[in-house]
């Protein structure tokens, strides 16, 4: 363990990584005895691997039952720092990565970051881009703006609308979006749907976006500044190849990882000049339009997908609002099924035959009677089993 903890001293760390290491040492000290009790088998020789290995030890190797009360906070702080360090190291890769390395990393991280769900979201929004925000339904407008509600039913929205950046905490933004979507349309109209966005086009967007908030709050005692993070969500959903969607939590780690000065959540100029300006120096961003269909999909979202280079744990993708609603619906369906069974006292065979007798039931489902019956006997509903078969074989 001692060799693992000191190994970054011999690594070629940049300033951001060295700052992370020095900060981590502050919290390693009060945990040293607990860490020394863990057997170490893997000693990576790179900072990303070091962060990941020590993070695994903190989460799964340290005996939590032996921690004193005053050690709980240092362990939590160390966890946060190591996640940040791993993210910074992965983002550092972006500065030198060619297109093949960029795409290979995204494919490698695809399951962890729910990349398929993210691409479904972008594809859905791309298909309604012919509509303005004022013309969209409430659910579509919120999907574009990054706020999930229970009305985003999983059968229509088979993705979490809050991937990339959630704006659910931006109350004034959503109030204004409801009251005057035409004003946001006017701002977004400055951003073309094809070609590189120019500084003037971005500046015109910012002026109109800020005016929405200044006009709304000018008669109020405490005015409210236009939020950069909400603006970046709109920009990124309109042009995921040109913009990076921010949250307050992402600004610091992205700035460190891209080696730019940290800016605050209202600094539209630094976002454009430093973050987007730096993005446009990367080799993979200048990749010519690929012919491969999957790579073309990534290319059209290549700026937004910088998210995938942020370090996450193995349960991150399971936090999807889509999965939560879908699974909740399945549980409710099972509950209704059990209640129905008690009331009707139909046997599983009778329930299956009753469902298969429907006039619109396809033949390829009817021939699967034995399979359906077997699943129903395990406690699943007929509707659920047939629905899955339709999705797989239909």
Describe this structure as you would to a colleague:
- With 394 residues, the protein is mostly helical.
- It folds into 3 domains: 2-94, no CATH class; 113-316, no CATH class; 322-393, no CATH class.
- The protein contains 20 helices and no strands.
Class based on secondary structure composition and strand pairing: mainly alpha
Kindly estimate the percentage of residues that lie in beta strands according to DSSP: under 5%
Give the count of helical stretches: 20
Count of all domains: 3
Order of H and E elements: HHHHHHHHHHHHHHHHHHHH
Uncertain runs are none
What coarse outline follows from CA principal-axis ratios?
globular
Helix content: 55-70%
Alpha-carbon distance between the two ends: 55 Å
Main β-sheet description? none
Number of strands: 0
The rounded Rg comes to: 25 Å
**Chain-averaged pLDDT:** 90
SSE diagram, text form:
Blueprint lengths: L1 H5 L8 H14 L3 H5 L10 H15 L7 H26 L4 H11 L5 H12 L11 H8 L25 H9 L1 H8 L10 H19 L10 H11 L9 H10 L10 H12 L13 H7 L21 H24 L3 H9 L6 H4 L2 H9 L4 H12 L1
Helix pairs in contact: 2-5, 4-5, 5-13, 9-10, 10-11, 17-19
């Amino acid at each position: 363990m001692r060799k693992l903890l000191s190994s970054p001293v011999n690594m070629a760390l940049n300033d951001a990584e060295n700052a992370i290491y020095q900060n981590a040492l502050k919290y390693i000290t009060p945990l040293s005895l607990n860490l020394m009790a863990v057997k170490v088998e893997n000693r990576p020789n790179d900072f990303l691997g070091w962060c990941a290995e020590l993070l695994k030890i903190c989460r799964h190797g340290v005996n939590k039952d032996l921690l004193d009360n005053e050690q709980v906070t240092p362990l939590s702080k160390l966890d946060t720092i190591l996640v940040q360090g791993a993210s910074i190291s992965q983002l550092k890769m972006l500065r030198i990565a060619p297109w093949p390395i960029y795409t290979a990393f995204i494919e490698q991280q695809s399951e962890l970051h729910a990349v398929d769900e993210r691409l479904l979201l972008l594809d859905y929004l791309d298909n309604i881009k012919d509509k303005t925000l004022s013309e969209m339904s409430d659910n579509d407008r919120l999907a574009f703006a990054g706020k999930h509600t229970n009305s985003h039913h999983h059968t229509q929205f088979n993705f979490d609308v809050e991937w990339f950046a959630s704006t659910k905490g931006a109350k004034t933004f959503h109030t204004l979006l409801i009251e005057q979507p035409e004003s946001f349309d006017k701002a977004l109209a400055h951003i073309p749907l094809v070609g590189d966005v120019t500084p003037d086009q971005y500046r015109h967007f910012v002026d109109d976006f800020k005016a929405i908030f200044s006009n709304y709050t000018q008669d109020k005692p405490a005015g409210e500044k236009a939020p950069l993070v909400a603006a970046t969500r709109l920009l990124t959903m309109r042009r995921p190849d040109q913009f990076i969607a921010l949250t307050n939590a992402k600004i610091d780690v992205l700035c460190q990882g891209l080696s730019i000065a940290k800016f605050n959540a209202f600094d539209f100029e630094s976002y454009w000049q430093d973050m987007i300006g730096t993005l446009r120096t990367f080799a993979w961003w200048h990749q010519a339009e690929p012919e491969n269909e999957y790579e073309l999909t990534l290319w059209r979202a290549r700026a937004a997908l910088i998210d995938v280079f942020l370090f996450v744990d193995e349960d991150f993708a399971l936090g999807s609002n889509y999965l939560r609603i879908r699974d909740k619906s399945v549980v409710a369906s099972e509950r209704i099924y059990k209640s129905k069974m008690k009331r009707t006292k139909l046997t599983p065979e009778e329930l299956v035959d009753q469902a298969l007798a429907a006039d619109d039931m396809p033949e390829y489902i009817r021939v699967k009677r034995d399979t359906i019956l077997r699943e129903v006997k395990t406690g699943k509903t007929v509707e659920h089993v047939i629905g899955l078969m339709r999705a797989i074989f239909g």
